[in-house]
Design brief:
By secondary structure, this protein is of the alpha/beta class. The chain is built from six helices and four strands, in the order H-E-H-H-E-E-H-E-H-H. A four-stranded parallel sheet has the order 1-2-3-4. Strand 3, helix 4 and strand 4 form a beta-alpha-beta unit. 18% of the residues are buried.
Length: 188
């Protein structure tokens, strides 16, 4: 089987989060994507049936920053990873977050679909705080409890968030609704 046939109608994900960390500049980061794009397109071709879709991670830059970065690119997909867990911590109940994905993420995804093109969420989380064990790294603490090595003010205890066996029906329903809202907002 030739290389062109092997690449035909597949999706190649260029998740280059580590490229961002190791890049000397944003230009280096973008250049790594451009080089990979050129290699894949030169091997597989352009247009339907000629080479794969190529998915690139947004590097945690705003989706609006990607408009016109790769003009006229063939079947290029922007992959975003939205989270609430790493932002401002709150002691609000899970039920208060049910519509947050729609109010926080949906507009940006819709705008990106129109301005950049196909935009997907390669991953998202149901975490509304950073209480999950080792989420911030082993021994790094949590923002929620005010023990995070990067600083922060204590919001509360992570114990009720981590004690999933004690979740009542309201908590379970709220997590489910948050998940469904996330899928709607991110069009997954």
């Amino acid at each position: 089987m030739n290389l062109k046939a092997r690449f035909s109608e597949k999706i190649i994900c260029l998740n280059c989060e580590s490229c961002l960390v190791n890049a000397n500049s944003i230009a280096d980061f973008l250049n790594s994507y451009l080089q990979a794009y050129d290699i894949i397109r030169n091997a597989g071709g352009t247009g339907t049936g000629n080479g794969p879709f190529i998915s690139i991670h947004d590097g945690f830059f705003a989706r609006t920053e990607w408009v016109d970065i790769f003009p006229n690119a063939d079947r290029l997909v922007l992959d975003t990873h939205p989270y609430l867990a790493f932002g401002t911590q709150s002691d609000s109940p899970m039920s208060s977050y049910v519509n947050t994905p729609c109010t926080s993420w949906a507009g940006g995804v819709n705008t990106s679909m129109g301005a950049f093109g196909l935009t997907t969420a390669g991953e998202f989380s149901n975490a509304v705080n950073d209480c999950a064990l080792y989420l911030n790294n082993v021994g790094a603490g949590t923002r929620y409890e005010g023990t995070y090595e990067g600083g922060g003010t204590r919001v509360g205890s992570c114990t009720p968030w981590n004690d999933y066996q004690s979740y009542d029906d309201t908590m379970k329903s709220s997590i489910r609704q948050f998940t469904l809202s996330s899928m709607d907002a991110l069009q997954v």
